[in-house]
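Table S2 (continued). Query chain:
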Amino acid sequence: MAESHSSKSIMVASIVVAVVGIALIVPLSLKGDRSAAQSGSSDAADVRIQPVAKFELQKAAAATGGAPKDGPTVYNSVCGACHNSGVANAPKAGDKGAWGPRIGQGKDALYKSALGGKGAMPPKGGAADLSDAEIKAAVDHLVGLAK
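Corresponding output:
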């Protein structure tokens, strides 16, 4: 006949089996870690985990030889992204109505806005590697387009 087991004896038997299983598995799983750490093969590990490739950034000025850029070049590479289409309320290049009041404030005010940023425009239009003279040349180019 079938023997009846109480739930308490089943629970005790399950706990005993789990403890014995853990007691066998833990030492075996730590054995591999201890042997690698004790073997002193850190050089071999360093070789195995080397990156596949290395990446290095360089400034764009170094690629061009550091020659200063003229106003139209700076405008086309940096400023035109917003001033050609009027993104973020940037006055469009050649729009005499939008540029008239700004030009009326004087070039020093325009230079200050371009170098320090204004509204959504970051300082130097986001091209911090450009010199102040290059930014001023781009402003002069923009003013020339609006006249």
